Amino acid sequence: MASSTIVDIDLKGLLPKIASGKVRDLFAVDDNTLLFVASDRISAYDVVMKNGIPGKGALLTAMSIYWFKYLEAKIPGLKTHFLNRSLPENVEASVDQNLSKTLRERSMQVRRLQIVPIESIVRGYITGSAWSEYQKSGTVNGIALPSGLVEGQQLPKPLWTPSTKAEAGAKDENISPENARDIIGDETVAKEIERLSLEIYATAADRAEEVGIILADTKFEFGLDVARGNQVVLVDEVLTPDSSRFWSKETWEAHLGKQQPSFDKQFLRDWLVAQGLKGKNDVVVTDEIVEQTAVKYREAYELLTGGKLQPVA
Ligand code: ATP
Ligand code: MG
């Protein structure tokens, strides 16, 4: 399995690469369409590890698609960037079977949109950077909260807590909703992003709850379809362990006031800290941590979608 871990996406120059993020590579299919390819790369504390997690890219892609379909069915009028998961014909025609399979399991074609330059975060529970701010000032993203909250506690209601979308290598900063509205610029668009973010969070949190998972917080990105009068479209990956904190409902209460075990990179983060490797470049993760992380991602996928990851046809 480990031999099929893909950290570099090589499309043999068949499509122009327009961007490469920590996890995904984006290729232009045409003016309106992108091939959105999730590698097996993993990042922690904003740094990408040297080796990847086998199966992660396929899993993130399948999970995002599961949610795009689920959310489109549940939320009237919600638009997403997902188009289909086939490969463009010229790519399919030119690559061998192996590469074709590798690409198909981790790719989707999406609408190419103008990305709104904020990270649209929603929090239902207080943890992470929100907890740090609250301890200092009693606020989260500048929003005043009741005193006496405990780490991991549910917030009185879910909050829209946006952050900046920093350039590669830089750190995103939490900002107030007002500040985010200013960055977005258009008031109608800003309102719509806040409304949709809260509605998507609520819809997904309900689904997660059914299977014993708490959606503590999550991050969305939105794009604008300028040709369609600035239609607001949900883009990027959605509701994956990379973009969300998933906690177990069963163990939540016992962990109030301390760190919650979560279905994501916790093993990796703990290991990095213990080894003094937090924030260091070129880290090679041990097989054991790779395997534990892969298991956690699979568990989250299987619980939330209710099925095992199927190989692509
Ligand atoms: P970033 O902080 O910019 O998200 P990242 O390292 O998280 O960087 P990845 O998640 O690996 O990046 O790559 C995804 C990139 O693709 C993001 O920059 C995201 O804004 C962009 N993106 C997502 N959907 C679309 C879309 N439909 N059209 C154009 N760009 C998109
Ligand atoms: Mg991203």
From TrEMBL:
<keyword id="KW-0658">Purine biosynthesis</keyword>
<keyword id="KW-0436">Ligase</keyword>
<keyword id="KW-0547">Nucleotide-binding</keyword>
<comment type="similarity">
    <text>Belongs to the SAICAR synthetase family.</text>
</comment>
<dbReference type="GO" id="GO:0005524">
    <property type="term" value="F:ATP binding"/>
</dbReference>
<dbReference type="GO" id="GO:0004639">
    <property type="term" value="F:phosphoribosylaminoimidazolesuccinocarboxamide synthase activity"/>
</dbReference>
<keyword id="KW-0067">ATP-binding</keyword>
<dbReference type="Pfam" id="PF01259">
    <property type="entry name" value="SAICAR_synt"/>
</dbReference>
<dbReference type="InterPro" id="IPR028923">
    <property type="entry name" value="SAICAR_synt/ADE2_N"/>
</dbReference>
<protein>
    <recommendedName>
        <fullName>Phosphoribosylaminoimidazole-succinocarboxamide synthase</fullName>
        <ecNumber>6.3.2.6</ecNumber>
    </recommendedName>
</protein>
<feature type="domain" description="SAICAR synthetase/ADE2 N-terminal">
    <location>
        <begin position="18"/>
        <end position="279"/>
    </location>
</feature>
<dbReference type="InterPro" id="IPR018236">
    <property type="entry name" value="SAICAR_synthetase_CS"/>
</dbReference>
<comment type="pathway">
    <text>Purine metabolism; IMP biosynthesis via de novo pathway; 5-amino-1-(5-phospho-D-ribosyl)imidazole-4-carboxamide from 5-amino-1-(5-phospho-D-ribosyl)imidazole-4-carboxylate: step 1/2.</text>
</comment>
<dbReference type="GO" id="GO:0006189">
    <property type="term" value="P:'de novo' IMP biosynthetic process"/>
</dbReference>
<dbReference type="InterPro" id="IPR001636">
    <property type="entry name" value="SAICAR_synth"/>
</dbReference>
<dbReference type="GO" id="GO:0005737">
    <property type="term" value="C:cytoplasm"/>
</dbReference>
